[in-house]
Amino acid sequence: MRSDFQRLLIIFLITVLSLFVIFPGNFSLKINLGNFKVDQKISLPSVNFKFGPFGFNRDAPFKQGLDLSGGTHLVLRADMKDIASGQRETALDSATEIIERRVNLYGVSEPIVQSAKTSGDYRIIVELPGVSDINQAISLIGQTAQLDFREFKESTATSLLIPALVNTISTGVTGKDLESAQADFDPQTGAPVVSFVMTNDGAKKFEQVTKRLINKPLAIFLDEIPISWPTVNAVISKDGVIQGNFTTTETKALALQLNAGALPVSIKIIEQRNIGATLGRESLDKSLIAGVIGLTIVVLFMLLNYGFKGLLADIALIIYTLVTLALFKLIPVTLTLAGIAGFILSIGMAVDANILIFERMKEELRWGKSQTTALELGFKRAWSSIWDSNASSLITCGILYWFGSGLIRGFALTLAIGILVSLFSAIFVTRTLLRLFYKAS
Q1: What's the pLDDT score for residue 324?
Q2: 2-22+277-438 and 147-260: identical CATH topology
Q3: In degrees, to the nearest 5, what angle opens at C-alpha 201 toward C-alphas 197 and 203?
Q4: Which of 366, 389, 363 is nearest to 378 (CA)?
Q5: Domain 147-260, CATH number (from 2.60.40.1510, 3.40.640.10, 3.40.50.300, 3.30.1360.200)
Q6: What is the mean pLDDT of residues 260-270?
Q7: End-to-end C-alpha distance for the chain, whole angstroms
Q8: Any residues with CB less than 8 A from the CB of 430 and at least 6 apart, and which?
Q9: N or C: which end of the chain has fewer CB within 10 A?
Q10: Averaged pLDDT, 100-108
């Protein structure tokens, strides 16, 4: 009995902690029932800490996916025709990492960048919450950004020609030799330019190239397109500028792309969607209503079918809901419509264990066992069925998460978390409540 009270104390502390995590530090309490009205602003202690890679801010909202918060969704196809078959997955991972680095440098909040391979088709899925301008998103991530410094072939009359791939050769200096780049302005003309700093090895190569090309043009190509071909007036080693007919926005984007690195493969946008924040808000509201309705139906079902045992199971179900939501915020889990669907489904699955236990208890009572013995045997003999059903569901979630992407992963993750918490709820919470209160009744 003493250990049961200790477990009850642990359950109480977990519930209070979950409420503390879920509710923000400041919120309004409004009640309007006839003459009884309450309109009160409540302020709770603020908690904000960071420990290594982990951090928590209780005032931060739940992390929402693109379909709830609004933004831009892009699907990119990587062209692997020039990449050896054994190197294609590595190239896809590298391209995904570079695109994610570009997005992070740009300052997009909570982006999602994922790679996917289906039937030899290599794709990158990019979700940019809060970015409503699709053209802006495309200019940010859709460019390969392969920088190449080229010189005219010796037989070419450089004064009369515009540089092209056919009349120039590479100097060996590329974007890989850049240490950093930033948007700047020409001090003489005020035109937007990109200033850069070479790495130590890049500076040595660039010095040799510019020494050889004194009073000759040095063509700068971006993705095999010439953007400028200034004449080299002096030897340059460490620092330089890239001039062209740029706007300020273009220099910022180019500097960002050069800092993030060039993509190892060319990419093509095959799908683009813009999701408005208003549509996301409506979807969230409808999902919350569906969740409340689903929870209410499950609570009533348990109460009507199992009486007092059902009431205790309903209390455990409410605790389950609070703990699961707290975990969603702590991890944090990106909540999408599919993820919310997984959570709502897990609410129904959370009572499966209780139903198995209660039905087993009924059988034990019919066989003449005492209430206490039926309770313990009900848990013991139902456990194998509970474990088998939940283990198979967890395996399915793992397969969906490993091979799926985007919405499917969100569904699998929230469902898996819900299943794990439901095991804790059934075996620890419900069992403790039944031992303490059902026996006493």
Answers
A1: 95
A2: no
A3: 40
A4: 363
A5: 3.30.1360.200
A6: 84
A7: 15
A8: 312, 313, 316, 353, 354, 357
A9: N
A10: 78
Q: What is the CATH number that goes with domain 71-144+266-274?
A: 3.30.70.3400
When the candidates are 3.10.50.30, 1.10.645.10, 1.20.1640.10, 1.10.760.10, the CATH number that belongs to 2-22+277-438 is 1.20.1640.10
- Condensed to tens digits (0 to 9), the pLDDT of residues 272-303 reads 888 776 666 777 778 788 888 888 898 999 99
- Give me the pLDDT at residue 203, please: 93
Picking from 348, 345, 335, the residue whose alpha carbon sits closest to that of residue 284 is 335
Amino acid identity, position 240? G
Phi, psi of 236 (to 5 degrees): -120, 135
Buried/exposed code over 241-256 (b: 16+ C-beta within 10 A; e: otherwise): bbbbebeeebbbbbbb
Domain ranges of the chain: 2-22+277-438, 71-144+266-274, 147-260
Amino acid in position 387: W
Give the dihedral sign, CA 44/49/55/61.
positive
In the 8-state DSSP scheme, what is residue 429?
I
Interval 206-225: pLDDT, tens: 999 999 999 888 898 988 88
Q: What is the dihedral of CA 244, 249, 253, 256, to 10 degrees?
A: 100
Radius of gyration of the chain (CA): 31
What number is the average pLDDT over the span 57-75?
79
Write 77-80 long-range contacts (CB < 8 A, 24+). 77/121, 77/122, 77/123, 77/267, 77/268, 77/269, 77/270, 78/122, 78/123, 78/124, 78/265, 78/266, 78/267, 79/265, 79/266, 79/267, 79/268, 80/122, 80/265
Q: Are 129 and 110 in contact (CB under 8 A)?
A: yes
What is this structure's pTM?
A: 0.68
Mean pLDDT of 106-110: 70
Place 197 in a pLDDT band, splitting at 50, 70 and 90. very high
The structure tokens 């409808």 sit at: 286
Compute the distance between CA of residue 297 and CA of residue 302 in angstroms, rounded to an integer: 9
Are the C-beta atoms of 103 and 128 separated by less than 8 Å?
Answer: yes
Confidence of residue 13 (pLDDT cuts 50, 70, 90): very high
Please tell me the number of Cα atoms within 13 Å of 13 on its side-chain side: 6
Token pair belonging to 13: 């502390």
pLDDT of residue 171: 93
